[in-house]
Amino acid sequence: MAVSVRIPTILRNYTNDESQVSAEGENLSAVIESLEASYPGIRARIVDEDGKLRRFVNVYVAEEDVRFADGLDTRTVDGTQISIIPAVAGGC
């Protein structure tokens, strides 16, 4: 299943400055593996060494935050739009 993945600016050095790329996979975990195969090193910026989504990375599948869905097991239907969005933190 082909999906489209929006890449945040901070990760575009892995995708040759492409802001949107195609990937394959029936769930988010498979899509991340597909991204890693095409753009080595990107997976480590999305998931930690335990294979879990990094705390400060938000991923949306069809505009649904996967943390409130099935996480890495969230299904990705053909043509789905996936957005990777780094969390912004700050304060005074």
From TrEMBL:
Q: What Pfam families does UniProt report for this protein, alphabetically?
A: ThiS (PF02597)
- InterPro entries found in the cross-reference section: Beta-grasp_dom_sf, Mopterin_synth/thiamin_S_b, Sulfur_Carrier/Prot_Modifier, ThiS/MoaD-like
Q: What Gene3D superfamilies does the record tag this protein with?
A: 3.10.20.30
UniProt protein name = MoaD/ThiS family protein
